[in-house]
Amino acid sequence: MFETNRTLEYVGIAKNNLETVDIIPIIRSFGRFPFPSEQVAAYQAKLKERDAIIEKNKKLKASKKPEENVPVMDMIESKN
Fold this sequence. Notes:
By secondary structure, the chain is mainly α. The chain contains 2 helices and no strands.
């Protein structure tokens, strides 16, 4: 799952009584695809736009107005 799911943002495993030997294979599967350096600037710009939408949504939520969709941040394409 960790090798193919490119949009996973959070994994809650704290209360699973796992030991180090159980966690090592999970951790090793993270970050298997390097982030291309030529995509960094574009990704940072999209991230900044996403953060602005999140902040705007906080204000909209407080005034009980419809919120804007927050884009998924996955700009890395697998070359396989």
